[in-house]
Amino acid sequence: MNQMPTSPNREAAPTRRKAVLWSTAALAAVAGVGAGWWSLGRQSADAGAESLWAQRFDTPEGQPLEWSAVRGNGPLLVNFWATWCPPCVAELPLLDQFGREHAAKGWRVLGLAVDQPSSVRKFLSTRHVAFPVGMAGLQGTDLSRSLGNQQGSLPFTVVLAANGRVLHRKIGQVTEAELKSWAS
Fold first, then answer.
1. pLDDT tens digit string along 77-101?
2. The CATH number fitting domain 54-183, selected from 3.40.50.150, 3.40.718.10, 3.90.1170.40, 3.40.30.10
């Protein structure tokens, strides 16, 4: 009997097809999980934004922070910072400039210090910023986590739309290019 030899390519073809199908299915599953995680993260950050408005902060001088100074009809940039954090200190002039330049367009800037009031008072006596500063203290770390800062790192900046939805988040020092992008 003459048997025709089987080609290795014929036997390997079904195995390759199965591998491609499994790979495609795995990629689809990962994409679905990733999209769900991103959506869930966005939803929880938006819920964190809602809780921001329920908070009560004092200024470094001990006076209640007036929400009317920051809650407006436009976007709000909230920056979590501390006097002992070099990147935080380095970005404050840029944030201050941004707030001044975009105030007429409805933008507001709020600094939330994860620090001691005496340190912030001393710091601000030599480096003035035009935007309001509230004392978040150690609770500021938890609040920043609720807004999407899972590591609790500083600086952390979040941009909220007028309706409270989280538009942008940044862990680390912001750049002028990022601010311009966010403003457009």
1. 999 999 999 999 999 999 999 999 9
2. 3.40.30.10
